[in-house]
């Protein structure tokens, strides 16, 4: 049995770049019929962003638009507006992520779409919540991170590298797409009860902030007692009014840190700088004893500077230095094997190359290979992050720009002559440049 959860759901995808397309691609992978609206002759901005070949769409585009249909459409022309109106009247979901006010100006605001099709769910992504004083700013990934306290709490805590740092993970982009996905799926469930679509507003700021929950926890604690025991600044450093940057701490009450290892050879090289392992010392006495025995640190079990969690918090530097000396003559894989066998939380720092060459991850969900055909051939992308016992996504290629235009227009009832006219008047194809 492989029944797609969203089979029969029609989606009009008026999004581009990453935050919106990451959401609508997941809708497509779950079985929805997703029609991506692209500007004639131009397409999604990522088609030509960071290209690996001048005549091919970039991996950026390919990794975000699998299994969609592409309709080349200029929604500013009278015919374009009529075509989009017909699409919306048949749609279950309409999604857009244009800058604030753009859809209103185009004539397809939530109110307009709801009037056209009361059952249609309207999903929108903007930079900030409507209550924010920054609501009219145009937002990118780093803007979401710096305004949601992610950057201020990420990075090193001492000079010369003490500066706000953004995460390598797309907290503002793909993360926002997944948050919107949750809202849209909830809206579909709600519609089963009410029969009416709703407006789902997701800001990049709030999606990023949702992943910074423990930093707001830390702020509450700091305001209450004036210090944070899990941070490397404790007990000798000074705490200011806000949650500081904390390097590589684990973030909760356990003592976690990143330790340098010797190069393992192969993909793990000195050049790439990923010869590290992450080790966590848990607070429980039995867990700590297991870690000490695995590393040969039995003397810590009777040393009052280390044999309790609170004592270890007060002597972090000494803990880090001794473990660092122990890992220095071992590879990250050896450390992982030794400590993992003892039940110690541990993991090697893996590079993108190491991860993407691990065949065990090509399990149909974690990483997937998609055959785009032509000169592109096969490419790798991140698959559906969860598994379902009775459904497995089938990952198909990305559409060419406007590759499904005729198909979509015919499904809406347009004749061949009308379709030809749309191409000639600039609605579905770029007008020829006037001769000089």
Automatic annotation (TrEMBL):
Keywords: Transferase. Signal peptide: none annotated. The keyword Transcription does not apply. It comes from the Bacteria. GO terms for molecular function: formyl-CoA transferase activity. Pfam families: CoA_transf_3 (PF02515). NCBIfam families: oxalate_frc (TIGR03253), PRK05398.1 (NF003809). This is Formyl-CoA:oxalate CoA-transferase. The lineage of its organism: Bacteria, Pseudomonadati, Bacteroidota, Bacteroidia, Bacteroidales.
